[in-house]
Write a structure and sequence with these properties.
The complex is a heterodimer of chains A (145) and B (110). Chain A has 145 residues and is of the alpha+beta class. Chain A has one domain: Histidine kinase-like ATPase, C-terminal domain (Heat Shock Protein 90), CATH 3.30.565.10. Helices cover 34% and strands 26% of the residues of chain A. In chain A, strands 1-2-3-5-4 form a five-stranded antiparallel beta sheet, with helices on one face. In chain A, helix 1 packs antiparallel against helix 2 and helix 2 packs antiparallel against helix 5. Chain A starts with 5 loop residues before the first strand and ends in a 5-residue tail after the last strand. Chain B is of the alpha/beta class. Chain B has one domain: HprK N-terminal domain-like (Udp-n-acetylmuramoylalanyl-d-glutamate--2,6- Diaminopimelate Ligase, Chain: A, domain 1). Chain B has five helices and five strands. Chain B starts with a helix and ends with a helix. Classes of the chains: A alpha+beta (145), B alpha/beta (110). Chains A and B meet through helix 1, helix 2 and helix 5 of A and helix 2 and helix 3 of B.
Chain lengths: 145, 110
């Protein structure tokens, strides 16, 4: 890819499971078109999908701001939801605050944040009770160090 | 084996029409936790799930799965079928249980 930089913006609708995952699917297609290494695409797509689903389920919807340049993708998922009460607990695999209804749909297994941590090269979570959460995911297109 | 061939061996209905039925099945994955499927299923797998909502299509696209198989005669929602056809992800519905599907796929050399 040349020096070009691509900025993408998506709205994440609240409680709309039909459309949940559309932003990450769209970003994945763009990365495929750009000829990015499939392993890197998988990392970006999974971590973005998890963040997107979290915004739908817990955050009351929000926005995705994505920047792609020659060597990395930066994904910011911003919601104005209730915030994460105990981030350390939320990072533990299997811990969930999802309702039974959500769990019956196959979500809410307590794997969202752990999956993001596993697949993102860099993960930053800023959360404030009553104000919302901003998740920033960075995936590099080439092996770092 | 192609999706269309496995569908025939399973006696499955292909809900999504012709789209994607020539995709190659490279394995079978059976799980209903979406996050788990996305991070563990191998590319090209046929995915057995009881979920029928539209998000199974997003998971299949993101994980690059070859098709979705609904066991025990489960039908998918109309919107799910439409979306899957659009994304070239065939959805198969068969009367077999998940276990039987795995056995048949194994007998087919998958």
């Amino acid at each position: 890819m040349a020096k070009s930089r691509m900025d993408l913006h998506y709205e994440i609708p609240a409680d709309d499971f039909a459309r949940a995952g559309e932003a990450s699917s769209s970003v994945k297609k763009i990365l495929v078109q750009l000829g990015i290494d499939p392993v890197r695409i998988k990392k970006a797509a999974i971590s973005m999908y998890e963040a997107e689903i979290n915004a739908v389920i817990h955050g009351g919807g929000g926005n995705a701001e994505v920047t792609i340049d020659a060597d990395k993708i930066v994904i910011r998922i911003i919601d104005s939801g209730p915030g994460i009460e105990d981030l350390e607990l939320a990072m533990q695999e299997g811990y969930t605050t999802a309702t039974d209804e959500i769990r019956e749909m196959g979500f809410g297994a307590g794997m969202g944040l752990p999956n993001m941590k596993r697949y993102a090269d860099e993960l930053d979570i800023q959360t404030e009770k009553g104000k919302g959460t901003v998740v920033t995911i960075v995936v590099y297109f080439h092996q770092q160090g | 084996m192609k999706v269309a061939e496995l569908a025939a061996r399973l006696g499955a209905r292909i809900l999504t029409g012709e789209n994607g039925t020539d995709r190659e099945i490279k394995g079978v994955y059976c799980c209903d936790l979406l996050s788990w499927v996305m991070s563990h299923a191998d590319k090209g797998s046929a995915w057995i799930t009881v979920h029928t909502h539209m998000n199974i299509v997003a998971v299949a696209v993101l994980a690059e799965l070859s098709c979705i198989i609904l066991p025990e005669g489960i039908d998918a929602e109309e919107a799910t079928i439409r979306k899957a056809a659009e994304e070239n992800i065939p959805i198969l519905s068969t009367g077999h249980t998940a276990y039987e599907i795995c056995c048949i796929a194994h007998d087919c050399g998958i």
